[in-house]
Amino acid sequence: MKKLKKWFRKDYQGEEIVTDLVHIDNSWDVTKEWIGNSVINNQISNKACVIGNGISRKRFPLNTVLGHFGGLLAREKLQTYGCNALYREHAPDFLVVSGDDYGIVTEVANSGYCDNHVVYAAAPHIQYHPGKFYLIPQDPGWNSGSIATYLAAFDGHTTVYMLGFDGQDTEHYNYNMYAGTQHYQTERNAQAGPAFLDLTMKENFDTYDVVDFVRVMPSQYSAMPEEWKYCTNLRQISFRQFTLEADL
To answer: CA-to-CA distance for 163 and 50, rounded, in angstroms?
Structure first.
């Protein structure tokens, strides 16, 4: 698993990506391209909500988050980061698309959604769909939920709420809201269990130790992955507590 560097948007100028590899005479000829930072995020509240696609969020009215005004001059407004098929129903401030195949990524690229929204993807997807996506800084190659959480911290938010991060504790059962729809399996592949999600999220918590990560679940006492329980900058609250705390 790739380790994160503790980068922040305010210091990020861009980075080189590999655009081509050719094996010649027992060595690799590498072609690189510099991609500058093209996203200016002038958020002022330092608060964000990352919207995962776990089935628990079916029970939460997302419009209260996506339509959040944040009081006077939007000082408490939550910026929103979403994942993959969320775009079918809602438009977060930022969308992250990722996947082992090109299914959901190509769907988003062809939908017209990218024309008016900021959508992040990995370098290969940017090359395959030119003009559609923005580069994920230091792309770790993770799932969209972990990347969206990382981007919220990268953008300088000091409080990051995580809604719909259910995890995966039942073999073959897919906890994703969009299971069975186009580009989503009905059952979870046994090899794609909870371990990778748990580890990548913990990498976020450990790297961005100055951030208050808040997992929002139906109950404050909902089960939590074992790897997360000892992260001192992670806490868990209920839907009701979230509504009160974020003034939704």
So the answer is: 6
Residue 198 amino acid letter:
D
- Mean pLDDT score of the chain: 88
Q: What are phi and psi of 211, to 5 degrees?
A: -95, 140
Nearest-10 Cα torsion for 90, 96, 102, 104: -10
Q: Give the pLDDT confidence score for residue 149 in this predicted structure.
A: 98
Say whether pLDDT at 134 is over 90.
yes
DSSP string, 123-175: HHHHHHSTTT-EE-TT-----HHHHHHHHHHHTT-SEEEEES-----STTB--
Q: What tens digit of pLDDT does each residue of 74-129 get?
A: 788 999 999 999 999 999 999 999 876 679 999 999 999 999 999 999 999 998 99
Q: What is the rounded distance in angstroms from the CA atom of residue 242 to the CA atom of residue 248?
A: 8
* Tens digit of each residue's pLDDT (9 = 90 or more) over 166-190: 865 555 556 788 888 888 876 555 4
Number of CB atoms found within 10 A of residue 228's CB: 17
Pair 164, 177: CB distance under 8 Å: yes
Among candidates 231, 237, 239, which has minimal Cα distance to 204? 231
CA proximity to 31, closest of 43, 20, 47, 17 = 20
Instruction: Give helix 194-207 / helix 144-154 axis angle, nearest 10°.
Output: 10
CB 104 within 8 A of CB 165: no
pLDDT of residue 49: 98
In this structure, are residues 123 and 17 in contact, taking their beta carbons and an 8 Å threshold?
Answer: yes
pTM comes to 0.91
